[in-house]
């Protein structure tokens, strides 16, 4: 039952745990007794104990030169989890950028409209001296709205820059993990082929394809 990352960036224990841990290390440390009590550990051949796994290897009299190294399977599992942890971050930044870019288009249109209102208000102020007070109020309102639009526009542009920078960093991490995961999967599949056994890598392959689609 591994620690998984929540949408708010914290971690929880298992599927039903609370998102209360700041780091994955804190989560695993707090639940370390679980591993001591649980005698079943995942192996490359399915949900078997390492003792059963070793017994199966002896049963088929496989030489050490052709055994699937447990370290390789562990690497794939760790990299798969890291890739899964990065996917919500990638989706979060991509969605945030889309929202901000949409806001920029909307605010640009609204800014143009409000600038037109401001121009008409200033013209009326000069031409209609007797309506000076009313025109002044209109101009003041329009100026306030222009400042609001300019502020909102700047905020969204800053957001796009921020999310793009963060997305670039996340993509850099994801690219390294993608390359490493692909290499480990290829090695694992080759080892399984040499052994004549079928090792389930469907989830890792699925995660890898999803990761590639986001890069």
Structure description:
The protein is an all-alpha fold. α4 packs antiparallel against α5 and α5 runs antiparallel to α6. It has a two-stranded antiparallel sheet with strand order 1-2. The chain is elongated, with a radius of gyration of 29 Å. It has a single domain (39-214), classed as Orthogonal Bundle (Helix Hairpins), CATH 1.10.287. It has helices at residues 24-30, 32-37, 50-59, 70-127, 132-195, 202-214, and strands at residues 3-5, 11-13. Residues 39-45 and 61-67 have low confidence and may be disordered. Helix content is 73%, strand content 3%. The two termini are 29 Å apart. The longest helix is centred in the last third of the chain and has 64 residues, at 132-195. The protein contains 6 helices and 2 strands; from the N terminus they run ββαααααα.
Features:
about 220 residues, mainly alpha, Helix Hairpins, two-stranded antiparallel sheet, about 75% helix, about 5% strand, elongated
Would you kindly provide a brief summary of this structure?
The protein is mainly alpha-helical.
CATH class term: Mainly Alpha
Largest sheet: 2 strands, antiparallel
Count of beta strands = 2
Shape: elongated
The helix content, as a percent range, equals over 70%
Low-confidence stretches: 39-45, 61-67
CATH architecture grouping:
Orthogonal Bundle
Number of domains: 1
Instruction: Give, in order, the helices and strands.
Output: EEHHHHHH
Strand portion: under 5%
Strand arrangement in the largest pleated sheet:
1-2
Number of continuous helical runs:
6
N/C terminus separation: 29 Å
| Overall SS class | mainly alpha
The third-level CATH topology is Helix Hairpins
The residue-averaged pLDDT reads 82
Radius of gyration of CA atoms, rounded to a whole number: 29 Å
